[in-house]
């Protein structure tokens, strides 16, 4: 493993730096696992919104607002970080914003809909910006031929972080009755636990991860970059034809991430509403799925570099389509467990593969900007997927099975777009 790590890293990159970078995946995964996937989303629908027919739609609409904000601000923040060599500075502000607003969800009790919505919008916006910026460090750390495995190291370690955060929350929730609490009453403190895990893990990132980028050319009189964030984005727009394969990856990502976002944000709701899972059942399910996701991210990271990033991503998309079919047919818990664990394997591998492909097709000095644009694609997906699911359940009087089946269309569309991507041509554009 150590030899593999040394051969995968760029000259001058220390192993502890890669670990520190992966620790950010470790840190922020607790947020997605606990807040968006396993605990707070179902709590929002059943307790805060009182199980109203519009509750699922309200949850997806809240996320949509935060993602639209990321779509607008993400590329500008990325271009700013590139121009000023300020990735760590932007990452710190985003991290602090997510940690604080997540902790403040502690006060989101029954009926506190507007407070919960506001804190989710802020925390999810900051989480998404942080995810974009930390991904932009990847081309600085790993050699082009090793981007898949290094990305996979981060994603797999991230699932370990999600497991730890969720495990701590599960212990707290399962002890509710012994403390004389209802299970729903114990959920408030899990938001503080999640924020604490995020802060602790990210601290290691900020201590050891270096900012290797250099500021862009500056005006000798004002000492400010000669090209501001907006100008850099406009230059990228003018050169769009040069990065045709990266644009295809963005389009593919929009489609498959729409499906992934739907599963991440609505899996707990689906499990409770369709399969009659209790809160504890759902937490155990998500814990086990995180294990399979960890295995998928780690294993497929190596597979990407061995058989090609495009081919590896295509395999995961086929897996996602099978998962949707299994979940749609499932009337017993056994088949649903198969679908859930297949989703775990595909989740870790597909998200790691997407990050590696963007890094492979991005110039190092513009990585934050391009990952900001990747953020536009993935957050557009996070609006389209869950909002479509929520709208279908609203229109059909909570027909979650039909909503899940429609989710499969996103994965099929992504597979069709991916066929047009040329890895060699996309990498050649980086050096032109």
Explain the overall architecture.
It contains 17 helices and no strands. The protein has 432 residues and is mostly helical. It has one domain: Growth Hormone, Chain: A, CATH 1.20.1250. α4 (55-84) packs antiparallel against α15 (367-395). The protein is globular.
Keywords:
432 residues, mainly alpha, Growth Hormone, Chain: A, 79% helix
CATH class term: Mainly Alpha
- Share in helix: over 70%
Radius of gyration: 21 Å
Class of secondary structure makeup: mainly alpha
* Count of beta strands: 0
- Uncertain residue ranges: 219-226
Main beta sheet, described? Answer: none
Proportion of residues in β-strands = under 5%
Give a summary of the structure in a few sentences.
The protein has 432 residues and is an all-alpha fold. The protein has helices at 2-8, 15-38, 40-48, 55-84, 87-103, 113-135, 138-141, 147-174, 183-208, 229-238, 244-273, 279-307, 309-329, 333-360, 367-395, 400-418, 423-431.
């Amino acid at each position: 493993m150590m030899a593999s790590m040394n051969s995968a890293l760029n000259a001058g990159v220390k192993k502890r730096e890669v670990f520190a970078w992966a620790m950010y995946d470790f840190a922020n995964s607790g947020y997605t696992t606990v807040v968006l996937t396993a605990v707070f989303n179902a709590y929002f629908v059943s307790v805060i919104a009182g199980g109203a027919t519009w509750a699922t739609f309200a949850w997806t609409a809240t996320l949509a607002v935060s993602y639209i904000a990321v779509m607008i601000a993400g590329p500008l923040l990325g271009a700013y970080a590139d121009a000023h060599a300020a990735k760590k500075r932007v990452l710190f502000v985003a991290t602090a914003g997510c940690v604080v607003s997540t902790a403040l969800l502690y006060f989101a009790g029954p009926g506190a809909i507007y407070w919960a919505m506001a804190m989710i919008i802020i925390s999810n916006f900051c989480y998404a910006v942080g995810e974009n910026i930390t991904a932009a460090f990847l081309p600085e750390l790993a050699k082009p031929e090793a981007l898949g495995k290094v990305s996979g190291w981060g994603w797999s370690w991230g699932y370990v972080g999600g497991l730890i955060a969720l495990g701590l929350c599960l212990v707290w929730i399962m002890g509710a009755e012994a403390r004389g609490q209802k299970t729903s009453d114990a959920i408030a403190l899990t938001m503080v636990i999640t924020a604490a895990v995020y802060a602790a893990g990210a601290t290691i990132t900020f201590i050891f991860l270096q900012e290797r980028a250099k500021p862009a050319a500056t005006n000798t009189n004002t000492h400010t970059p000669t090209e501001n964030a907006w100008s850099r984005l406009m230059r990228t727009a003018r050169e769009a034809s040069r990065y045709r394969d990266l644009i295809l990856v963005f389009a593919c990502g929009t489609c498959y991430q729409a499906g992934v976002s739907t599963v991440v944000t609505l899996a707990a709701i689906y499990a409770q509403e369709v399969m009659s899972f209790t809160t504890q059942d759902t937490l155990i399910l998500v814990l086990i799925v995180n294990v399979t996701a960890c295995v998928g991210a780690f294993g497929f990271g190596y597979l990407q570099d061995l058989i090609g990033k495009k081919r590896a991503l295509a395999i995961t998309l086929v897996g996602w389509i099978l998962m949707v079919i299994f979940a749609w047919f499932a009337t017993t818990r056994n088949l649903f467990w198969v679908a859930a664990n297949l989703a775990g394997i595909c989740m870790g591998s597909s998200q790691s593969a997407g990050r590696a492909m963007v890094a492979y097709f991005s110039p190092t000095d513009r990585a934050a900007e391009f990952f900001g644009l990747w953020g536009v694609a993935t957050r557009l997906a996070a609006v389209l997927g869950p909002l479509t699911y929520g709208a279908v359940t609203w229109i059909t009087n909570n027909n979650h099975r039909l909503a899940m089946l429609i989710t499969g269309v996103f994965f099929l569309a992504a597979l069709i777009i991916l066929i047009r991507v040329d890895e060699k041509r996309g990498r050649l554009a980086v050096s032109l």
